[in-house]
Write a structure and sequence with these properties.
alpha+beta; six-stranded mixed β-sheet; about 25% helix; globular
Length: about 700
């Protein structure tokens, strides 16, 4: 009788910063874990079955219940195996770690995540009597690169890393030359395989595997000669400190002491794009899962074309109108206001320059500016984000539908499609940011409950996130109180009360951020970034929480919280939500979208409780007319809203929901809830088609 065969791969899971990298052997195949008489197994080996996961501990295989941490002794480190959105598992030494209950669907998703990480790396097949170090062929060091020897791969190390066999040579201040390495050097917290020797072992600098250098990011910035240098120990970089403001310097020093954002389970996950359709499809699914739970995503490997440097010639190619006047934030003006004895009024920190002047002033050590929201009407949107930009997709699906009443002077006219659109609907979709090295953006969240993506085209940025908890016991009031502390403008820096996670963004990195997530940003090196905002059906419950916060009053004050918490207002938000509701019956024609309960409840609440989400600031940005009959946009929006409300009534009945407000506040604020049965929407569509009330939804 033939012995069972197993595929093998090596996995290096995310670990605590105090531990050294550990490679784990992963087995798949057959119907049970490998026999210890046939294959030598060690603590931490993993077997992936069709419906379960087994882990080898103390001489035997044990089935792991992912709802409970699985404790292991790995080379003297006592670590717990816990679920991870990115890799399927991660290792932690946190004694207070809490793992959420998991149902069978969650376990299947966890297994799929593990299998996906293996499938992107061709593995050994048909191994029966050899361990990972003997008969293993086709073991890879990364999911991209060229074949090396017997099925292994090699790739270039990221800049600033070195192997002892292949050291990085420095050329001048703050510059390093990247050389090809014989193995994969990766510090992202994602999986990797052994660089050269497929044997399972613990990696230490003394053994000659890898050593991560502290990388100086001290070029691409103009500052006084004696400007202090700050060490970011967890990120492995050195940067100059802000030199205009002691307050800014203290804030950045606090950021530099923070853990990597990847260390927090629900703060940030890291993925890689390999420029293939398969990768794009997989990334889209993983990004949607992460942001729907309030977790940001860092994608490496996608970059707009052509690459651009922070110089007039390159930016002039990208933005030909360099003489355009723009409003910028001035760190010098802000520092002067911070130095006042009375409480700083930070409302007047702006000045006007041209784009050309902004680029030139980056070379002046007496200047430090930040250019926000430079509209880009031709944005390059990553392919893996297009299916998630539901506000744009819904607008495209309803663009040829016309709801403007044909009455009065318009009687008998032939309208085709949407007639009026607010300019903000275009501006929020794409924008560029340019920032001088040394500028700090204080804690805020992006306005309008919008998700955000941002791609670094040149320079670097350090993004800081705050851990406010996602527990089901966290009430909305407690969440809002935490945001009040983090997003306050006072000089006390109340955000220090909350644990922070930081991540370094470099050229070719794209960050996707869910709605409402407070963050602060430091720019070590002058650069250009491009990005945009979007709404997604899967994150509408987070949009609702964020907009409700912005539209509520500051405690003890008349002004809205949004005037303090955000950096902009978007009056087109409500129109986009209406379009997303109008598109729902069209999405009912197939199963391309997975809908969850809370986001749908949020759409219902936006229609039923519109006054709760009305922002005085957004209203101020919309022109008014004394004759409502002549206001074409107002008439068109009212007509669209009537249709949207009818859809919402049908949807609410189909879901069997009565008290939307209380259902929205059940459980964790970031939990999207259970997968929604699409039957309700199918019935909704059929009802409209049989009644003939909405012929524009007929599907051809």
């Amino acid at each position: 009788m033939d012995k069972p065969s197993y595929e093998q791969a090596l996995l290096q899971p995310s670990i605590p910063s105090s531990s050294l990298p550990i490679n784990l052997t992963v087995f798949r195949g057959s119907t049970s874990p490998p026999s210890t008489t046939d294959i030598e197994c060690q603590n931490g080996d993993i077997y992936i079955g069709s419906m379960d996961i087994c882990i080898f501990r103390d001489g035997k295989w044990e089935r792991w219940d992912p709802a409970n941490p699985f404790r292991l002794d790995l080379y003297g480190d006592i670590l717990d195996v816990v679920p991870c959105h990115l890799q399927g598992i991660r290792l932690t030494n946190d004694p207070d770690i809490e793992v959420e209950p998991m149902n069978s669907r969650d376990i299947i998703q966890l297994i799929d995540s593990l299998l996906w990480n293996i499938e992107v790396m061709p593995t050994t097949t048909g191994v029966s009597q050899t361990g990972a170090g003997e008969g293993s062929s086709n073991i890879t060091t990364a999911n991209t690169g060229e074949l090396l020897g017997k099925g292994r791969r090699k790739r270039k190390a990221r800049a600033g890393t070195e192997t002892l066999e292949n050291p990085v040579k420095k050329e001048g201040k703050g510059k390093e030359k990247e050389k090809e390495s014989s193995g994969d050097i990766k510090t992202s917290g994602e999986h990797l395989l052994a660089p050269s020797d497929p044997k399972r072992r613990r990696t230490t600098p003394e053994e000659g595997e890898t050593r991560i250098l502290v990388r100086p990011l001290l070029d691409g910035i103009s500052c006084p000669e004696k400007t202090p240098v700050i060490e970011w120990k967890k990120l492995g970089i050195n940067t100059y400190a802000p030199w205009f403001s002691p307050t800014d310097k203290k804030a950045v020093e606090h950021m530099a002491e923070a853990e990597r954002a990847q260390e927090y389970p629900h703060m940030l996950v890291e993925l890689e794009y390999d420029n293939s359709a398969r990768s794009a499809r997989s990334l889209m699914s993983k990004i949607e899962d992460a942001i729907s739970s309030g977790c940001s995503v860092l994608v490496r490997g996608w970059e707009p074309s052509p690459p651009l440097s922070f110089m007039e010639e390159d930016i002039g190619l990208y933005r030909p109108t360099l003489s355009q006047q723009v409003s910028v934030q001035d760190a010098v003006k802000r520092a002067r206001q911070q130095a006042r004895r009375s409480k700083a009024d930070l409302s007047d920190v702006h000045r006007t320059v041209t784009i050309k002047e902004f680029i030139d002033l980056a070379k002046n050590e007496k200047e430090c500016l930040n250019l926000l929201d430079l509209p880009n009407t031709q944005p390059e949107i990553p392919i893996f984000l297009r299916p998630l930009s539901d506000n744009v997709n819904a607008r495209s699906m309803t663009m040829n539908d016309c709801y403007l009443p044909k009455e009065g002077a318009d009687r008998g006219k032939e309208f085709f499609g949407v007639q009026t659109i607010h300019g903000d609907a275009e501006r929020l979709r794409g924008w560029d940011l340019m920032t001088h090295g040394g500028f700090l953006t204080y804690p805020h969240h992006d306005a309008g409950g919008l998700s955000t993506y941002i791609t670094v085209r040149s320079g670097t940025k350090v993004w800081g996130y705050f851990n406010v908890g996602t527990s089901s016991t966290t009430t909305r009031k407690e969440l809002f109180d935490a945001w009040d502390n983090i997003l306050s403008l006072d000089q006390e820096m109340n955000f220090k009360k909350y644990p922070m996670g930081v991540v370094l963004l470099e050229k070719g990195d794209t960050l996707i951020q869910p709605p409402g997530i407070p963050h602060m940003v430091y720019t070590p090196q002058s650069g250009l970034t491009s990005g945009g905002h979007f709404l997604s059906y899967s994150t509408m419950h987070l949009t609702e929480v964020s907009v409700a916060y912005d539209c509520s009053g500051c405690p003890g004050k008349v002004e809205e919280r949004g005037l303090v918490a955000t950096n902009a207002a978007h009056p087109s938000l409500y129109r986009y939500i209406i379009w997303m509701i109008l598109a729902l019956p069209k999405f009912a024609s197939d199963h391309a979208k997975i809908f969850r309960l809370k986001p749908l409840l949020a759409l219902i609440s936006f229609m039923e409780n519109a006054e709760t989400y009305s922002s005085a600031e957004a209203t101020r940005l919309v022109p008014s007319t004394t004759d409502s009959k002549k206001d074409v946009m107002a008439r068109e929006v009212r007509a669209e809203m009537l249709k949207a409300k009818e859809i919402i009534r049908r949807l609410k009945n189909g879901l069997g929901v009565t008290d939307v407000t209380s259902r929205l506040e059940d459980g964790s604020w970031s939990d999207p809830g259970a997968k929604c049965d699409w039957n309700a929407v199918f019935l909704l569509k059929q009802k409209f088609l049989t009644e003939g009330a909405y012929a524009c939804w007929c599907l051809h």
